[in-house]
Amino acid sequence: MSLPLNTSSTPKAENAYRVMVVDDSAVIRGLLTRMLENDPKVSVIESVSNGEIAIKRIATLDVDVVVLDIEMPVMDGLTALPKLLEAKPGVQIIMASTLTRKNAEISFKAMRLGAADYIPKPTSSGELTKADDFKYELVEKVKALGRVARTARHAPLPSGASATVAKTGAAGQSPAQSPAGKAADPIRRTTGGLYANKEISLRTTAIARPDILAIGSSTGGPQALFDVLGNLGVVSQPVVITQHMPATFTALLAEHIGRISQMPSKEGEDGEAIRGGRIYLAPGGYHMVFEKKGTDTIIRLNQEPPENFCRPAVDPMLRSLSKIYGSHLLVLILTGMGSDGLRGSEVVTTAGGSVIAQDEHTSVVWGMPGAVATAGLCSAVLPIKEMAAHVRQLVLRSAA
Known about the structure:
Layout: E1 17-22, H1 26-37, E2 42-48, H2 51-58, E3 65-69, H3 77-87, E4 92-98, H4 101-112, E5 117-121, H5 125-130, H6 132-152, H7 186-191, E6 193-195, E7 198-200, E8 212-217, H8 221-232, E9 239-243, H9 247-260, E10 265-267, E11 279-281, E12 287-293, E13 296-302, H10 314-325, E14 329-333, H11 342-350, E15 354-358, H12 368-374, E16 380-382, H13 384-399
Parallel strand pairs: 1-2, 1-3, 3-4, 4-5, 8-9, 8-14, 9-11, 10-11, 14-15, 15-16
Antiparallel strand pairs: 6-7, 12-13
C-alpha cells in the first residue's frame, strides 16, 4: 500500500531532492520519512510497501533517490532493483537492511546490479528512533546521491547545494560508457587545469619507491576497490584499506576482495604485523592505525571517537602511516562522500608521500577524491580503470 505524503513543518528549499521510501513496515516507512523530511533539502514524495508497487509508481513520478528495503513480501528489493532502474534511468537507489551477513551479501549483489549504496538499519523501530548516527548517514547519503541524479540530467539543485562532488557516470564505467556521453579531457586529467569547475594543480615532485599502498574509500568504494585490486596483480608491498562500512560488511568485503585479487585479503587484527603482498581492511567500528615495533609495522585497532563522522576513518590511518613511511607512502583516495582523507593526505604530502585521486567522471560521489584533488595534494587524478596500471608502473619504475 501507499502512504499519504508526509506533511512536514520544515520549510523546503526550492527544488528539494525527491525521495521514494520502499519498506514493508508502515512504522519504519513513517520513521524514515520523518528523518528525511526534517532536512529542508529533502522531500519524500512517495512511500510504498513493496517493490511491485514501487515499480508501478516510479514511472509516473519525478524521483531522484529510492530508499529500498531488501526483505519485503510480494516483491523484494533485489528483484525490484533492476526493474526500478529500467523504469527510471538515472535514479539513485540506496539498499536498506538490518545488519546480518545474509543482507550484507544481498547488498553487495545489489551494488553489482546498479544500486548506488546501502545503509544498515537498526534492528527495531525503537533503536531506529534513537539512532542519531543512522539519521545522519541516511540524510547525507540521500543528499549526496540526489546531487548525482540531478547533475547527470542537468537539473537544478536545491537552494545552496553544490554540484562539484557529483558524478555524471556510474562507478567503474569508462568515460565512453557514461550517460553523459563525453570523455573527460585526458590532458586536464593528467596535468591539472579546470576540473569540476575548480582549478586543479598537480604535484610534480618525484615519487619515491612506495613501501606500502594505503587506500581510502566510501560511497561506491566496494566496486572501485574490486576494480583496482582485481587488476593490480601481486605487489611486494602491503596494501591497507579503510572503507567506511559497519562490521559485518567489512568482513564480507575482505572476503570478496580476496576472491577477485591475486593477494590474500583479511580484516586487520590488533597487534598483527603486516606483510608484503597481503591486503588488510579496517574492521567496521574500529580505526585502524599503525605503529613501528622493531622491524615490523603493527596494526593497532581502537575505538576512539569517530573522525569525519566515521569509524573507521581514513585520516587516522594516513597520519599513523606517514610517521612510519614518510616519502615511501603511496595513497589512493577513491569515490566517497565527505572529505575524510583530506587532512591525512595533507600530512602525507608534507612528509613527502604521494596521493592519487579517482577522477570525478568515474566516482559515484566525488567528495573524498574531489577534496584532495582540489586542495592540490595529488600527483595524478585518474579514472578508476587506469589506477591499477598507474600504481604498478610507479612501483616497477621506482624499484628499477
